[in-house]
Structure formats: structure tokens, C-alpha cells
Amino acid sequence: MPTFTGGANLYGQEIGIMVLQTRFPRIRGDIGNAHSFPFPVRLRVVENATAVRVARQKAEGLLEPFIVAARALVADGVRAITTSCGFLAIYQQQLADAVPVPVFTSSLLQVPWIYPMLKKEQKVGILTVDGRYLGEEHLAGVGAAGIPVVMRGVEEGEEFTKTFIDDGLTLDTDKACADVLRVAREMVEAHPEIGAFVLECANMPPYAHAIQQEVQRPVFDIVTLTHWVYQGLMRTPF
């Protein structure tokens, strides 16, 4: 038998997820629901990291709590770390520098990968929970500055932003889906040059299939990114 080396508290949970401190429902497909993945993940709540503070206040004062949470996940044995909010793109480099494992803070990290796949006249569509607060600073944080994008938020909808930013206790999934579909459809109607979508919000993956059916474009999100990282960590022989 081979010899194994220990050092971690736990084993078999390769992906750690730093989750905002919320009370809204997290259905299957949401980054904060462990059943969203076919492999074990380890969740850790970051104290005082509310959705309002992270999305609308640029996570001001929260870098250190996220670093503490990331280091705790490393001590638990994870081999890569993500978060439950794409707005944390602004802390991508700081968090990656703080721990010895890969960190992927935001689904927006996929924007620089997706753009070269498209025709030169095409753009990446970014669907976000609140378009008033997502900007160039977030794109720059993940190396996407200067890439042609179309960004729109669902903040004017009836359900989605009300639940996930205002931390509602209930979620009407039909209404939430309608919110994201309406904006995605409007984006393509106004900008047919959109070649693919990235869902900034880590609560949007439950609606990714419906979005793709609506707009007939590739759709990427934090779940697709997490699968990509996991497959890199857990290669199997051919």
C-alpha cells in the first residue's frame, strides 16, 4: 500500500465555498446548495457579509473576514475556493494571494475565456442581480477590462433582486425566472451581437437552462466554472 500524508482536518471536499450571511432560500442550482454539485463541497458562512454590503457597497471592510474564511477552508482540506457572489471579483487578486490554493471569486472570470471564442464583432452578455452596481472595477478584477460586453441587471423585476439582495424569506421561482428571462430577451433584442452569456449572480444558475432556451446562446455561470475547476483538481486516467 502507498504511504499517505495528512495535515488537513477533513478529506474529500475539494471545493470550498465562502457563502454570504443570508436567510433567503437556496434551491438546487444555487451555489449555496450543496446538492447543486455531483461532488462534495464545503460551505462556510462569512460573518457580516450581507448581500447589500457585498453587491451595493463593494464589500467594503469585508476583505479580512473573507481571507479568514478562506484560510479556514484551506485548514479544513479544500483544494480550491469560490464565493457565493460575483461582485467579489474586486477581491480576486487579494484573496488568491492570501491562500495556497486556487481561488475563483466570480463567474466573471469566464468572460476573458469566452470572448476569444466568439466572432470579432460579437460581445459577451453579462446578466447581473443589479446592473447599477456592477462596473469596470469588477471586470478589471478578473482580467476582463476592455472586453466588449453588454451588462444588464434584473433589479427592476418583481422577485429576483427583492429576494436575493433584500434577503427575503420566500422565493417565487416562477417570478424569479420571469425576471431573468425578460432581461435576457431584451438584451438579445437590443444587442443581437451578443454571442454568449455569463450570469454574474451565483443565485441565477437554477434558471440557466431556461435562459438558454430563451436566447439560444451558450450560458455560463458559477456552476460551470466550479465544474471546470473541480475537473482540473480531480483528473482521472484515460
The total of helices stands at 9
Order of helices and strands: EEHHEHEHEHEHHEHEH
Radius of gyration from the alpha-carbon trace, in angstroms: 18 Å
The mean pLDDT is 96
The helix fraction, in percent, is 25-40%
How many domains, as an integer?
2
CATH class of the largest domain: Alpha Beta
Taking the sheet with the most strands, its summary is: 4 strands, parallel
* Straight-line distance between termini: 22 Å
What does this structure look like?
The structure is a single chain. Strand 7, helix 8 (208-215) and strand 8 form a beta-alpha-beta unit. The protein contains nine helices and eight strands. The longest helix is centred in the last third of the chain and has 18 residues, at 173-190. The radius of gyration is 18 Å and the shape is globular. The protein has 238 residues and is of the alpha/beta class. Helix content is 34%, strand content 15%. The two termini are 22 Å apart. The chain folds into two domains: 15-106 and 224-233, 3-Layer(aba) Sandwich (Rossmann fold), CATH 3.40.50.1860; 107-221, Rossmann fold, CATH 3.40.50. The strands form two sheets. Strands 2-1-3-4 form a four-stranded parallel beta sheet. It has a four-stranded parallel beta sheet with strand order 6-5-7-8. The protein has helices spanning 51-56, 63-76, 92-98, 111-114, 136-141, 160-164, 173-190, 208-215, 222-233; strands at residues 15-19, 41-45, 80-83, 103-104, 123-128, 149-153, 194-199, 219-220.
